[in-house]
């Protein structure tokens, strides 16, 4: 078996599992954040659920650890009250990023399983643990039952050949991989990375690479733990640990050998993490701000690297540098080692530990027209504010903050670029629209919206600025208002409409609202070539009809056509030209949840 097959087997009732099996998986650590946590509480209360094991159940407040937003402050208080009532451990606003805390506190370790409302919970693959981000319904069920259902994915092996160049950091490695595999070539696969250079990677470097599995569409990126990782986890857990590794005869859907010696310093261009470029080949890009932090690059090794480049230097005039350690333990190490003093003397803003700009948190947001270079894992439109965001390694980000434009750490000029200001563009607000509800059927007819785009992410569907909304009736008006060309979708959509899209629909965040906004509008179903893994679960669990296809070109469907879809048979008919075809019909479990009206 592969790594994921072994871990899921060890946490199920079966002696072995294989790709395609749907199994109930025992979860060792179940966590909800301040983002998603209130909806978890609401689901538990609304459905009269109990808590399975409080020793394995946690809240982590990392998306807005200052409580600076009124709605986040309310949501955090809801979670705290619930935690007091049930004696659940809370890693509060002074602790840091939840997925990192799971490792630091010995709650996630090689061979363990964990789920959270964080779509980057698959970062735990860095220590050989199974981690998954899931929607609030799944997490509520995990709190209550201690288990969630999971479909065993196929596995892909990536072998890194050759020697790693000296100027290539962990972030460069993952950006090079993103340039090779894009956002959906590894969609729904479990990935294992091995090779001589992979074996040498530190824990912090592995965390950086694993944290961007979501941006590749992968279920998770695993590294087999070496002795240093095992020793670290044994110290944190206080127990002996045996790493889970793949069998020599494990079956992989794909195997790729990649020459790491050819990797170059990379930057992700605004809008798409996988749209990368060689930093040394791009034209000069002036920046307004720089952000160092997030679950991808907020570790102590990142902070030391930044301090070594920044020492004795100042940020360019007009450039704002914001630094946010991943956890309070990292923050304290920065203080003890004198790194905070270096940061402050350079002109940087240092904040308490948390996700910060990556999750619309306490610092790191940018405004319209602002250009930011960031160590985050996502630069989807609107993800880190209204401006443009480039992604790069901490070394590149701090070098760019000193230079005033995007550059590598070994190409910092003697004099920074002169900063120029531009007025930000005006925002356009949407009118409110009341939602309506559609009647459930196993065969439906409706008008088509055919959006011919791949990788429509959850920020495009339902932007993170609306995440504090928990009333489904308020959600519909914001549907697609961050998808270019479809900002007026909510105004024009009719009850009973059907949306057809292409590959990797719903990639990105674990937010349930990206499903519920369609329900709020009365949209009957979504048909896509493929889905982001978390989005697919959220839709099924919410009894919202989604179907997938291999090819529907022969139906000649266009926006405005009327189609008929049968969930039981998978048949699809274009009523305009009478052409028909086949979709992937509902699975038994999807039909069961749909007929029941939801996972609960």
Q: What does this protein look like?
A:
It is a single chain. This protein has 600 residues and is α/β, with parallel strands linked by helices. It folds into three domains: 3-262, Aconitase, domain 3 (2-Layer Sandwich); 267-411, 2-Layer Sandwich (Aconitase, domain 3), CATH 3.30.499; 443-596, Aconitase, domain 4. The protein is 27% helix and 18% strand. It has 18 helices and 25 strands. The chain has a seven-stranded mixed sheet with strand order 22-21-20-19-23-24-25, with helices on one face. β3 (57-60), α3 and β4 form a beta-alpha-beta unit. α6 runs parallel beside α8 (203-210). The longest helix has 17 residues, at 70-86. The chain is globular. The protein starts with a helix and ends with a helix.
Distance between the termini: 33 Å
Question: How are the strands ordered across the major sheet?
Answer: 22-21-20-19-23-24-25
The shape, in one word, is: globular
CATH architecture level-2 label of the largest domain: 2-Layer Sandwich
Main structural class = alpha/beta
CATH superfamily of the largest domain: Aconitase, domain 3
Into which percent range does the helicity of residues fall?
25-40%
Number of domains: 3
Biggest sheet character: 7 strands, mixed
The unreliable regions are 428-439
The CATH topology label of the largest domain is Aconitase, domain 3
How many helical elements? 18
Strand proportion: 15-25%
Radius of gyration: 23 Å
What is the strand tally?
25
User: What's the CATH C level of the largest domain?
Assistant: Alpha Beta
**What's the overall average pLDDT, rounded?**
93
